[in-house]
Amino acid sequence: MKHIQLSHISVSDIITVLTPTCNLRCRYCFFTPRNCREYDAERIADRVLRISSEEGIDSVLIAGGEPTLQRDLPEFTEALSRDLHVTISTNGTRWEILRKSTFHEVHVDLKALDDEKHLQLTGRSNRSVLECIEELTGSGKLEVSTVLIPGIVDVDEIEKIAEFLSEWDVPYRITGYVGYNNSLGARRPRDDEIVRAAEISRKYLSSVSTSLDFRRHKRRRMVLDHI
Question: Does pTM top 0.90 for this prediction?
Fold first, then answer.
């Protein structure tokens, strides 16, 4: 029997399934697991499909935490993809699970191109992340994102990432650091700094978006009841 660990499900204009565990220790992580339990993967899929039917939503995002730590993710995504547009949000460290999974989009969070900065932020090298990105570049399903952190992952680092991605011209999203618990001692970037990072990235890439573009969205509600 296939199982998935579940934190909770949230519903807005997309259904988001959140898994609780992660293999990185990102110093600015804001995710707080909620009702963490292990469920039969088919049971969760049925719940998601019921929400989809009731709410008229045709897309699901699987995130976390790190969803590829769920070894039964391939079976779970296969069940969902029959009826829904499936997006996986991942740190890109477990290609061996991701490549077996079924998805329409995959969003890989590249914390930094500089390996020392990546180690500082996550406690782990970025080598497997870069390899995962390269494996996915020909799929037409990849989006890469980076958090802009003034003084750490600054505009110059964003430019290096954009230049790295330019070989494949994949969509790139820049998100402003929000300073949750502020363990980095960094400030939030100003709007003009985010805009500047995007402008520089567009010298290399044809599709660049930022967190400023996504400020308005349907309010989320949590589905915390037992599946």
Answer: yes
Domain 3-223 in CATH 3.40.30.10? no
Element (H, E) at 224: none
Q: How far apart are CA 63 and CA 91, in angstroms?
A: 10
Express each pLDDT in 41-69 by its tens digit. 999 999 999 999 999 999 999 999 999 99
The set of residues, in sequence order, having a beta carbon less than 8 Å from that of 178 and lying 6+ positions away, is 28, 30, 188
Cβ atoms of 130 and 172 closer than 8 Å: no
What torsion, rounded to 10 degrees, do the Cα atoms 224, 86, 214, 181 define? 50
The pair of structure tokens assigned to 13 is: 């204009």
Place of tokens 């100003």: 190
Our CA dihedral for 14, 17, 20, 23, rounded to 10 degrees, sits at: -80
| Domain locations in the chain as residue ranges | 3-223
Residue found under tokens 């309010």: 219
3-state secondary structure 14-68: CEEEECCCCCCCCCCCCCCCCCCEEEEHHHHHHHHHHHHHHHCCCEEEEECCCHH
* Count of CB atoms situated within 10 Å of the CB of 204: 18
d(CA 188, CA 190): 6
